[in-house]
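Input for the complex:
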Amino acid sequence: MAYHKPTYLFLFLPILLLIYQIAPRKFRRGVLLGAGYLFFWSISGKLVLYLIGTTIFTHYIGICLELQESRKKKRLVLAGGVLLLLGVLGYLKYYNFFAENISRMLEAAGSGMIIPARHLLLPIGISFYTLQAISYIADVYWKKIPAEKNLMKLALFLGFFPQIMEGPISTYGQTAEAIFRCDPLRLENLSSGAVRILWGLFKKIVIADRLYTLVQAVFDNHENFGGVIVFIAATAYTAQLYMEFSGCIDIVIGSARMFGVKLPENFRQPFASRNAAEFWRRWHITLGEWFKAYVFFPVSVSGPVKKWNRYGRKKFGKYITKAGASAMALFPVWLGNGLWHGARWSYIFFGMYYFAVLMAGIMAEPVRNKIIKTLHINEDASWFKALQIGKTWIIIIIGEMFFRANGLRAGIQMFQSMFGRPSGNLMTLGLDTADYVVILYGCAVVGLVGILRERNLLDGHMLRNLKLPVRWAIYYGLILAVLIFGAYGVGYQQVDLIYAGF
Amino acid sequence: MRAFRRCVLFFVILILMLYGLSQIVNVLVKSGSDLIQSRNKSIAGIQNEKEDSVDVLVLGDSESYTSVSTVKLWNQYGTAAYIGGQAGQNIQETYYMLRTALQNQSPKIVVLETNVLFREQKGVKGIQEGLIQKANYYFPIFRYHDFWKPVLFGKEYAEESFKGFMLRETVESYKGGEYMKETKEKDRISEMVKHYMDEILELCKEKEVSFFLYSAPSPVNYNYRRHNALKEYAREIGVPYEDLNLKAKKIGIDWEMDTMDRGDHLNLAGADKVTEYLGRIWKETFDLPDRREDPEYSQWQKEAREYTQRAEYKLQRMHK
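Predicted:
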């Protein structure tokens, strides 16, 4: 039961809204919690026990942290809690990856020892709820929030059904209060939530699922393609991933909105970014913020980095010291980011790719500033912005190509073939002219909305302030666009949510 | 209260829009089968058949349309049959295919190829499929939502068939030997499938249509465990059942020549043999009329003649 499927949209959500509204306020938390576990169970079956186990464990770690008076013991509890949560995630998600690679290394070293692979079932959304649990423990440790005494409340925070599968990853302080309030349903929330869901469906079903055919045709047979077709496929995958992930997040945010819960945004026009760092402040925002708050900042103020800052300033000067300190803090962030997506070398490469790009940006900054000053370039000039955005697009597209490729080797081969002889034909990749037209128009609509938002010319209130016939025309237009131009039913493949797999 | 009324009005207009669009696509569906995607052709086709002209309606997945030849049935027994099978048809689709067909047809028998009964359709997946098929049935715009492709871009999905039967001449032998090894074990038919079967049987009872189950010869899909399950289930629901996997030799199935994909599906030659056998049973058991001399069926006769020529040519090529 994924968020874009009829069972969720036309059964689960409406029935839940009805039960929630009928239920007395004091039972509504129970209704939402039950819905969360039912939703989780419908996807992962008995693996829901992992979620329940994580919740109970996190709950007691939180209380323990609050009860401890000694800073040393608190640290121990924090470390134990985080390590165990990461341990479960790591074991389920990465055990086979490390077992395989260590076995290979042992084999290469002449040892006959093999670490056997295990059949491990990964609960859906474990990467999302584990990060939320860690953020809760860390925030209790830092005294940003008090420990939650009510187990049910914490269970609801970690098992809030719209967030279970794909995030957004929220901190306790961001969403808990709104979830626990359990306000009665309001028409305003219902309608704005429904519009957001529709917008998400448009992106997912009309554009992303249509692009899937082309992307799969090229990436799964990459050796048959070369030149511009590979670049088009990489661009198509970037667009597919954005439309799908942001579309799904729209459905998630819209669903939560219906219950009066405002979840944090996960995307803010990422393709308007002028550099890679800005891109990551606009793309999968909640993951980026999590790494910033719980990895980057703690590492930045950690003993080794402080020591390096003191030592580096004396020995190497400001420039090298800054670069070194940045590298020390950014490396675990990007290694973690890559690994978070899954146990594959291509994901690790993806993380290291952005680490290298960001480090290059930091290191080249003085030279860049000098060039701009010498040539009297106006950084706000449209042509300069366009140039920067274009450069960022290329960085993103290449990164996503490695991310999607069937392994690191395939990624490297595709990268090389992009500069080789063109081979392949766009019209034989499973899409016809009509599909390309829909994709182009669809992307244009999403792009236009993005531009209007970027310039603060469009927000939810504006839609509400439009005259009823205009507003309804927009709603009907969206519904019919999804219904008629959606890539569903006969002739199309069912496409699972990409990020649910992470 | 005003907001509630507005909400109701919004959905009423939406339903009217869906209804209107469904009417438009229904007109398009009737205007030509080349405008419809392959998997939807059988359901569109049965809607386009002349009212009350079909005596035998065959349902099921690909095992159905590769094992019963409407050409053979017509030529040998004068039986007017239509194949409402679809690749990978699930039981929900079978049910709504039947409901669609019974809107303008009153067949004497509905025949179901049993492979469809082993598509579990349990849990959320089953509920979802039921929901989708219901929406497709009441608002055909969902099923034919791609209608704009042929209309605006001239896209066509050309495919030749005679009343749902296509001539498949490929030969890829099955060499696995005996596959119906006797056992007392039996496979399971899911509750969801049984629920839809009850609905199907109820519908047939209501319309006074006989029901018949058969299993097409297919080493890939059948074994004795399935035979046991089907035999027991057929007895339970009180319908006749023929397992042709146990009668493959008697029918004359030659696994060297009569399968198109190593025992998964029969080809034209295999379908001819199965049809000859089943056609006789149906004719004798259900007293089916011979329509060959019926002037109402002159168009049917004409189409069958053309298709027969092609079928004979292909059969000759297969045996060369």
